[in-house]
Amino acid sequence: MTRQFAVVTGASTGIGYHLARICAERGFDLVVAADEPRIHEAARDFQALGARVEAVEADLATAEGVDRLYAAVTAFGQPVDALLANAGRGLGRGFLDQDLDAALKVVETNVSGTIRLIHRIGRDMRARGEGRILITGSIAGFIPGAFQAVYNGTKAFLNSFAFALRNELKETGVSVSCLMPGPTETEFFRRGDLMDSDVGQAKKDDAAKVAEDGFEAMMNEEGDVVSGWKNKMQAALANITPAGLLAEQHRKMAAPGTAKS
């Protein structure tokens, strides 16, 4: 049987790594991308599962990085059956205390790079009349994120964008699903300078389980999935809680120095 073909971004670690691993286990060949050399080691893991894999080390915050990835996808020689747009970046601390370039990098990675890539591959899918897109949003997108203001704002965009794009593509043969995890055990908190916060030190969800939930939602063409019952409850409460109160609750979790001993 011919294996299907998936593109997974942010696949070197965390949720993206496990999404790519599940794809390899379920019969997909892969182009995987990340902005660090570890993507090549991850690709060898996926190859060991029987998949044909091409690794692309590229900064998807830039148009050049997306172009490089898309060129590798085209050179692979198969139409894309599934795009798992997972690449993301976080950043803690108060907005005015952050380096502005670092804050803009969060926007460029999470928003600009994601929509550039989906625009390229999504057009190909629509022209062919089939394909699946999974976007990694977050329950953070429901909450004004004091001390993660830019990150939560980008996830609010992605959550909204996924639902809008899903509606636009109905009856085209292309499905769009949004994975909305809560705090997950990944490199995110260390890289985002959040380890001295309560949320940085708290127990988190298992990345492999979150990825499994996202993959199944994509394959079942579900509109969205919030991974984990506690996160489902938090997402539901966010819809009826005043924004100011949500921001204050987030402050208690994410402000520097709130880590519990």
Automatic annotation (TrEMBL):
Cited SUPFAM superfamilies: NAD(P)-binding Rossmann-fold domains
CDD domains: SDR_c
GO cellular component, one term: membrane
Assigned keywords, A-Z: Oxidoreductase
Record keyword Hydrolase present: no
Record GO terms (molecular function): oxidoreductase activity
Annotated TM spans: none
Superkingdom assignment: Bacteria
Matching PANTHER family: DEHYDROGENASE/REDUCTASE SDR FAMILY MEMBER 7B, SHORT-CHAIN DEHYDROGENASE-RELATED
Name of the protein this chain belongs to: Oxidoreductase
